Amino acid sequence: MDFDESPAEVAFRAESLAFLEAQAKPFVVDALGDERSIFITDHDVESRYVKRCCDWQSVKYDYGWAGITWPKEYGGRGGTGFQDAIFRQEEAKFINASGVFAVGLGMAGPTLMAHGTDAQKDRFLKPMLRGEEVWCQLFSEPNAGSDLGGLATSAVRDGDEWIVNGQKVWNSGAHYSDWGILLTRTNLDASKHRGITYFLVDMRTPGIDVRPLRQITGAAHFNEVFLTDVRIPHENIIGQIDAGWGPMMTTLSNERTLIGGATRGDFTEIADLARRTGSHRSPALRQDLARSYTRSAILKFLGYRVRTATARGVAPGPESSIMKLLVSEHMSGQGDLVLAMQGAGGMLAGADALDGGRWQMEFLGQWSSKIGGGTDEIQRNTIGEKVLALPPEPRVDKNIPFRDIPK
Ligand SMILES: Cc1cc2nc3c(=O)[nH]c(=O)nc-3n(C[C@H](O)[C@H](O)[C@H](O)COP(=O)(O)OP(=O)(O)OC[C@H]3O[C@@H](n4cnc5c(N)ncnc54)[C@H](O)[C@@H]3O)c2cc1C
């Protein structure tokens, strides 16, 4: 593979930069805490951040830069994965505004395109792309995370509506979302992977109670969501009744690709921190710096591989598990490194710490990447089975009715 950009890609980068220089300036972040929604600890700052993300998405839409890989019929640019990566690299220099739309544009959108009806696509895709509607993911439950087939939130049909009862958990951004993608159990007599139905739910429907969960960073970016007699119109089902597993797999595969392919902080920032703290003179830390650089380079090339496959029409497969796993190892190694480079200063926090405590947040945030989007262990299982063709795990409850599985 030729890693140099083609003349067309060089031109695309210049075009992206020209647009960003002309339009992105008003949105440049004004405080470090604003940059990463996952790390925002103040409710008002977060509300400002969400609004700024929506405003910026709308500007991108107006100028034809929203949804670079999305088909033109849905308001996208119809571009390639490489163009998308180029634009995101340039955009990251101006504003970090993609987190708010990760579930919508990165997961719900592709799932709707693959499994939605024409009416659903017409209703939801353009408002999503214009940043008018923010989405969250209501999949995990207290007893169903890695094993989503164990989910128990029930949906019972009542004429043209379904009545939903149950509890979801770890739902990122649910407290500021307009819509949710929701998995429910609709058939207790089917096996665990069969009786699941996939819904789109308006987060303002009566009976939805969103309660934020505070994390180790001090931020509360995810929530518990309680659903009590929530009524959802039948037309909001994605795919078929009891057959939500297929669209769910589309969502999860896109989620892994999204997490694995996200633009990482530039290594020059890490190198700069090393110089400022004098860590570049420490033989031990130099080894860790080299490891960090190597991992980020491997991630870049794995990204090329995934995008090349996508450009040839191959859906993201087990490569996304490999990337997701490496990203989590990278975040974890880098989180430890940025703290170690500060020596005793690593024990400080907030305004007392170097760069306002930004690196401490990076250290504390490293665990989220090991769990969110599927844990490291689950990615290893997938790689073992799908890439290395190792024998699958025993699954004793796979072919029995859900109601007969011991709980
Ligand atoms: C930052 C973040 C954001 C998230 N956002 C969302 C969201 O928006 N929406 C949503 O629905 N969910 C979200 N989640 C939830 C996430 O998908 C789950 O936490 C994850 O799938 C793990 O499920 P669990 O927490 O129930 O852990 P469990 O599945 O109970 O796992 C516990 C431990 O057992 C291990 N384990 C489980 N099964 C196996 C196995 N078969 N083999 C080996 N080891 C195993 C796991 O690796 C883990 O170490 C988020 C999580 C995080 C951390």
UniProtKB/TrEMBL annotation:
A GO CC term assigned to this protein in UniProt: plasma membrane
Domain Acyl-CoA dehydrogenase/oxidase N-terminal: 56-132
Keyword field contains Flavoprotein: yes
SUPFAM superfamilies cross-referenced by the UniProt entry: Acyl-CoA dehydrogenase C-terminal domain-like, Acyl-CoA dehydrogenase NM domain-like
Any one Gene Ontology molecular-function term assigned to this protein's record: flavin adenine dinucleotide binding
Domain Acyl-CoA dehydrogenase/oxidase C-terminal, first and last residues per copy: 243-387
Residues annotated as domain Acyl-CoA oxidase/dehydrogenase middle: 136-229
Cofactor annotation: FAD
This protein's UniProt keywords: FAD, Flavoprotein, Oxidoreductase
Gene3D superfamilies assigned to the protein according to its UniProt record, in alphabetical order: Acyl-CoA dehydrogenase/oxidase, N-terminal domain, Butyryl-CoA Dehydrogenase, subunit A, domain 2, Butyryl-CoA Dehydrogenase, subunit A, domain 3
PANTHER family: ACYL-COA DEHYDROGENASE, ACYL-COA DEHYDROGENASE FADE34
Family according to the record: Belongs to the acyl-CoA dehydrogenase family.
Protein's name according to its UniProt entry: Unannotated protein
